[in-house]
Amino acid sequence: MACAQTGSGKTAAFCFPIISGIMRGQCPQRPLRGARTVYPLALILSPTRELSMQIHEEARKFSYQTGVKVVVAYGGAPINQQLRELERGVDILVATPGRLVDLLERARVSLQMIRYLALDEADRMLDMGFEPQIRKIVEQMDMPPPGVRQTMLFSATFPKEIQRLASDFLSNYIFLAVGRVGSSTDLIVQRVEFVHESDKRSHLMDLLHAQRANGVQGKQALTLVFVETKKGADSLEHWLCINGFPATTIHGDRSQQEREQALRSFKSGNTPILVATDVAARGLDIPHVAHVVNFDLPNDIDDYVHRIGRTGRAGKSGLATAFFNENNASLAKALADLMQESNQEVPAWLSRYAARSSFGGRNRRSGGGRFGGRDFRRDSSFSRGGSDYYGGGSGNAAYGGASGGHGGGYGPGVTSAWD
Ligand SMILES: Nc1ncnc2c1ncn2[C@@H]1O[C@H](COP(=O)(O)OP(=O)(O)OP(=O)(O)O)[C@@H](O)[C@H]1O
Fold first, then answer.
1. Which pLDDT value is given to residue 382?
2. Which keywords label this protein (predicted)?
């Protein structure tokens, strides 16, 4: 289980070991091809089609001239073309869960030879929407058990309850966190502005005007605007266009072709404003996104972390502006904590909201008394009734048990580099 901030390069972190493992020939002989079933050695699952496409492109670059074959399969695109690609041979299959289940049910893909399984955006993959499909793929098809395969879970956020679920897919695993789990990078300047619902459009317009005026040769910098609903996305896009701001939109009701076209047009700068729902919140690595606007704030602080993480990537700086009003009161505490943690200026009015808000659920951070999540096994209330998680000494090599290789002896609540 690995956590590192958005834009820090997690894709390479799971692709290189897989490619290297396959190149070292540490995988079993596959059945002779003849039947139409293919037997990939590695499977990388991701929650959105666009993210699968991006991982595929990256993995192909990383495996250039290695002979390792990477194929992608995702929904909304013709399956026949993907089947033809698969028939040409596949070592690493990058897929979205729905399309993969389809391929498995058609017996066109077998997971029997999988030695590496990576779940990108693992917490999203295991939350309510995807868990049944992931369980089916990992537990009910022909995938080898944990231990035979190596399983890697990556995300910038990892709520405890999802960690707990994820541990079903792992055996004797290492929890590796770079920085605090769920924190955002301080390369992103975060601003929160109090804006009533009815003022949001004119406020956005002011921001965009100012941005254009400051831009090189009056050019609009790439701006990603997050809204809560698909309808809201279409309507805001329309309004921006009629007001002279070239915009496009990406959300789940658009055809795959339209989604891909929107992304291309945004990346190229032809339509420098992209209005998006959460479908674009995770993983997408679009160079030069200067500004992320949370026109509607999400209910979950982790979603906020992923959204703003579309800027400030790979060591570059970025700006994120959120429109906050009474409707977002339940997020106030988590938002103020997050901002403080990443050295941002927290407006006094937000601190007041944070102080008086009553909150619950996932918008509240729970980290054993400290802000930021960590390995849930270190929560004193967690017990699996065995010594294999903590203090056993034999397993868990990276930790060396609770009193082992890293200075030892730290209990819950004690700071360590692994927090
Ligand atoms: N060692 C490196 N040097 C320079 N650039 C890098 C390096 N590693 C990764 N990058 C670049 O950093 C960018 C972000 O990487 P990546 O998309 O893997 O981030 P991530 O950690 O998966 O983010 P997210 O949590 O948003 O999915 C990419 O453009 C990638 O090419």
1. 57
2. ATP-binding, Helicase, Hydrolase, Nucleotide-binding
The pTM is what? 0.88
Please give the Cα distance from 91 to 86 (Å, whole number). Answer: 10
Residue 212, token pair as written in the block: 């254009």
* Max CA pair span of the chain: 68
Range 292-297 average pLDDT: 98
Instruction: Indicate whether residue 314 lines ligand 1 (CB < 6 A).
Output: yes
In the beta sheet, which residues pair with residue 15?
none
The angle formed by the CA atoms of residues 129, 297 and 261, to the nearest 5 degrees, is 65
Residue 58 carries which side chain, given as an amino acid letter? E
Please indicate whether residue 11, judged by its CB atom, sits closer than 6 Å to ligand 1: yes
CB count within 10 Å of CB 2 equals: 18
Report CA(117)–ligand 1 centroid distance (Å).
20
Contact of 206 with 396, CB cutoff 8 Å = no
Residue 176 CA to ligand 1 centre (angstroms): 17
The pair of three-digit structure tokens given for residue 163, joined into one six-digit string: 């960690």
Q: Which of 344, 354, 302 has the alpha carbon at shortest distance from 324?
A: 354
* 269-286 per-position pLDDT tens digit: 999 999 999 999 999 999
- Ligand 1, atom 30: nearest CA belongs to which residue? 9
pLDDT digits (tens, 9 = 90+) for 54-81: 999 999 999 999 999 999 999 999 999 9
Handedness of CA 72, 76, 78, 79 (dihedral sign): positive
Helix then strand then coil, % of the chain, to nearest 5: 40, 15, 45
The minimum-distance atom of ligand 1 relative to the CA of 155 is: 25
Best residue among 3, 5, 6, 10 to mutate for probing ligand 1, ranked by most atoms within 8 Å of CB: 10
pLDDT tens digits for 143-190?
999 989 999 999 999 999 899 989 999 998 999 999 888 999 999 999
Amino acid at 21: G
